[in-house]
Amino acid sequence: MMQDALDPQLMLHAYAQGIFPMAETSMNPELFWVDPEHRGVFPIDQFRISRSMRRFMLKNKLSATLNRSFAVVLAHCADREETWINPTLHTLYNQLHVASRCHSLEVWQSDNLIGGVFGLTIGGAFFGESMFSKRDNGSKAALAFLTTHLQRCGFTLFDTQFITDHLASLGAVEITRAVYRRQLAQAIELPVSIISQPLPSVQDVLQRRTQTS
Q1: Number of folded domains in the chain?
Q2: Residues 6+ apart with CB under 8 A from 33
Q3: Is 130's pLDDT higher than 50?
Q4: Interacting residues of 59 by C-beta distance below 8 A, sequence separation 6+
Q5: β-pairing, 62-66 with 210-212?
Q6: Does residue 36 sit within a domain?
Q7: In whole angstroms, what is the distance from residue 75 CA to residue 188 CA?
Q8: pLDDT at 109
Q9: Is residue 2 part of a domain?
Q10: In which element (H, E) is residue 205 found?
Q11: Higher pLDDT among residues 5 and 15, named by residue
């Protein structure tokens, strides 16, 4: 458990060292540091889109926004039976968002929010925290837009913290702590910004992404 009070600057310092805070449950006030032996990452240029996902993105005329509805994305990500986002982390994410260090990407079908993802940035590293779907493929679309956007902005590291079968099916891989820290040390020194480029269109995403069966 943490002995010192966690604030936004300490949180950013921890991420830059390769560790991050979590709570056991949303109602548990205690936080602890996590330093996984193996880390999940998305190779930014290798996100996979299935043929069915490609058809979904084209058929539904999706669009993406950045930081348009951060509070809503955070609330959706925290609104589940099992989550590590306790009130302390909820407050810290909001403080980091105000400081332009925590960002959300929203996916819209017309005026309806159907999915989103949020995370922290340091240099050319994006630390993914959580994502949500309000309809099928909503979070997949958010990741497709986000990986394309990060690539265009010059990011080199997309940290997923852990890997799941779902993330692996989209192109995420697992690397050792040592490899992760080498990639992290290089990424955080890059002079890039998540707001340096406009968000991609569906056509931009599909042109850059690897198609699977």
Answers
A1: 1
A2: 2, 14, 19, 20, 21
A3: yes
A4: none
A5: unpaired
A6: yes
A7: 28
A8: 96
A9: no
A10: helix 202-208
A11: 15
Q: What do you get for the CA distance between the two ends of the chain, in Å? A: 45
pLDDT, residue 213, reads 43
Helices (DSSP H) in 41-119: which residue ranges? 51-59, 70-78, 87-98
112-122 and 38-41 beta bridge pairing = unpaired
Question: How does strand 157-161 pair with strand 125-133?
Answer: parallel
From the CA atom positions of the chain, what is the Rg in Å? 16
Supply the CATH number for residue 129's domain: 3.40.630.70
What distance in Å separates the CA atoms of residue 169 and residue 212, rounded to the nearest whole number? 10
In a domain, 18, yes or no: yes
Supply the pTM of this predicted model.
0.95
Q: What domain range includes position 95?
A: 8-212
In tens, the pLDDT along 89-106 reads 999 999 999 999 999 999
Check if the beta carbon of residue 138 is closer than 8 Å to that of residue 206: no
Joined together, the tokens standing for residue 43 give 């190779």
Q: What is the pLDDT of residues 170-183, one digit of tens each?
A: 999 999 999 999 99
Confidence (pLDDT) at 3: 47
Find tokens 């990741």 and name the residue. 143
**Residue at 3 is within a domain:** no
